[in-house]
Amino acid sequence: MRDTLLKIRDLRIEGQQGDDWQPIIKGVDLDLRKGEVLGLIGESGAGKSTLGLAAMGYSRGGTRISGGSVTFDGMDLLALGERQRRALRGKRIAYVAQSAAANFNPAHRLIDQYSEAPTRIHHMMGRTQAEQEARELYAALRLPNPDEIGFRYPHQVSGGQLQRAMTAMAMSCKPDLIIFDEPTTALDVTTQIEVLSAIRGAVEEVGTAAIYITHDLAVVAQMADRIKILLRGEEVEEQDTRAMLAAPKEDYSKSLWAVRSFTSDEKPLAPATETPVMRVSGVTAEYERGVPVLDGVSFDIHAGHTVAVVGESGSGKSTTARVITGLLPAVKGSIELDGQRLPDRLASRSKDQLRQVQMIYQSADTALNPRQTIREIIGRPIRFYLGLRGRAQEDKIRELLTAIELDPDSFIDRVPSELSGGQKQRIGIARALAAEPRFIICDEVTSALDQLVAEGILRLLKRLQDERGLAYMFITHDLATVKAIADHVVVMQKGQVVEQGPKSQMFAPPHHPYTQLLLSSVPEMDPDWLDRTIEDRKRG
Fold it and tell me: How many domains does the chain have?
C-alpha cells in the first residue's frame, strides 16, 4: 500500500453572496496516495474546482474555507502561514487550469514563463537546464517544433498548444501533486490522445499523484485509478474506476453514465439557386509572408443552417474565422455576405457589415469584462449597432435575457464572477444576438462545459436559429457536438479542406483517411481504450 500524500477531512467551503455566506463544499473527505490519480467528476457547480484548489490550501476570492483539515505529506496546509504555502505551490503542488489563455502573461514568451518557477522562484536549477527540460517536456507533450515553440508568445500558438505548454509549466519542478482542472478541454480528439498519454506517462515516470478534474467521463476512465463523484458540494460515491464504470451504485452516478440524446434533424441542402448567407471562396491566408496557413478554403453557409468545421489543433479552423471577421486579411480568395463581397480588413467594413457577422467565444471567462454588469455587457452592442438608449435599450436587454432563458430581474445587475460557466456562455450568446446578426461564428462554445450544461446550450442555439433564421459556423473538436447540431460538415487539415458534405454522409463510411482518424480518436468509456488505440496506431 502506497503512503497517503493528501488527506482532506470534513472540508467545508463557503461562498459570499451579498452579505451572506452560502455553503459550496459541505463536509467532503478525500484521500490520495503517492503516485495515484483520483478522478473528480460532477456537473457544473458541483464544487470540483473549488475542492481541487483547496487541496493546495487555497480558496478563490469570494470564498473561504470554514472548516475541516487539509493535510499534505503530514503538513496541515490550513495551519501554515501564507508564505509557507506559497513555497509549496509550484514546487511540490502544481495546478493546471482549464483556461490556458487566462493563465499566461501575454507579454512574455512561453519558455520564460516555464523557467520562472524552477529558477527565480524556487532556485532549483539554472536557466540553461530549465530551458533544456522545457524542450524535453514540450516534445513529450507532442508540441510541434519543441526546440523553438517556447520562444513564441501565447497569442502565437493555438489554444490546444497553449494548454499543453501550461501542462509542461506545471511539471517544471517535478511536483509531488498536480491538480489537473479540465486539462484537455481545449484539445481536439487526435491531440487529446497524445496529451492524455503524455500526462499519464509523466505522472507515472515522476511518481506524481494527481487529482484529475473533468466532466468528460470517457477521459476520466483513461486517467484515474479511482473516481469520486460530487453533486452540489457533497460526495455522491467513490469507487475504483473499473468498478464505477461497471456498476455505479447511486442513481445520480447512473444518470451521468446515461447517453445524452440531443440531436437536431439534418436540414435538406439549400437549392443551388439560393444565395448563401456566408460564402468562403478560395481563401488563402498567411501569418508570415510566403507561409500559407490557409490554402484555397471554400464552403457555403445558408440561412437557418449550421456548418461544423472540424479538425485538429492548428488545422486552420479558427484562422478561417479570423479571415471571415476581417481580423486576418486573405491573400487570395473572397468572403461574401448575402452575395456581396466583404472588405478584407475589419477597419474597412461598414457598421452594418460588422453587425451582420458576430462571434461567440470558447472561453466566456476571458470574453466577458469582469468589471461590467450584464446590463452593460449586453447593452453596449445594442447601443452601438442599433442606436437604442434609455428605456428602449433596457427593454431590449431584458428581451435578450429572456431569450437565453435567464430571468432578467435576477441577472441584469450581476457581474460575470457571480455566474456559472453555462450562464456566462448564455450571456455571450445574448451579446452576439444583441447586434441582430445574420451569421454567427460559434468557436468551441461548449468545450468548457459539462455534458448536461453543454446540451442545454446546444438546445438554446438550435431554438434561436429556428426562430431567427440564423446561419452558424460551428468550430469544434467534439464530434458528438457535430452529430448533435450540424447540417453540413467541413473537415480541415493543415489549412486545407480535405472533405466536406452533409452530416449523414460524413458519418457513414467510406471516410477520408483523416476523417477516419478523427472518428477513431473519440474516447470510449473503457479504461483500456487509450492503451489499445495507441498500440493500434504504433502498429500502423
Answer: 2
